[in-house]
């Protein structure tokens, strides 16, 4: 049975994810004071609600939108310094799409997107992608200039200290995973995880990489070390929605 994943690791997202992430970002982006507005995002009132084809698509759309929000100031600075923005052919109501796609492009080290399973293309996404990719050298140079200005090895170090501390705390929390008992039994999950090399331990304090434990209060919830997030999300248990990330 062929399984399809919405995200091809570090190779980009499907068009629908960019559209949904842009809709989410349009509603959450930071509004600047009128005398400081250099990048315009159009009218929030006309932005339609996102529609998701599955839980995985929903999760990565929100992740992309919130990553763009986290780095909004930096992404705007890159667009302005590279002279990629403003552009007469890109209306204000596509600025959110421009920003979320720029975040993803820099996250891929300005490499071309590769999607291996078919999905109907979205004209706006294709337009913005071609535009950004044609200026990838200027965009990369603007990013490098920002990093030098801030003395930062990576964009994570450009974030305010308070946000970096929040990220570090969040990354240390265990992953909370629901067992979808409509599709698989607890015992079958335990058996499958054992085949994959996982060891069941008593508590999170016993975690040692390929380990997991039961939640003390919910019998259909498992906890995993946070370092296993990407590996778990790309496993067949998640692809088949037998396990769901809380």
TrEMBL record:
GO process terms (BP): methylation
Span of the signal peptide: none
Ranges where the NOL1/NOP2/NSUN 5/7 ferredoxin-like domain occurs: 176-246
Chain segments annotated as transmembrane: none
Sample GO molecular function, one term: methyltransferase activity
Pfam families: NSUN5_fdxn-like (PF21148)
KW Methyltransferase (keyword) present: yes
Keywords assigned by UniProt, alphabetized: Methyltransferase, Transferase
Domain of life according to the entry: Eukaryota
Entries under PANTHER family matching the protein: METHYLTRANSFERASE NSUN7-RELATED
Name listed for the protein in its UniProt record: NSUN7 methyltransferase
Organism the protein comes from: Psophia crepitans
The gene coding this protein: Nsun7
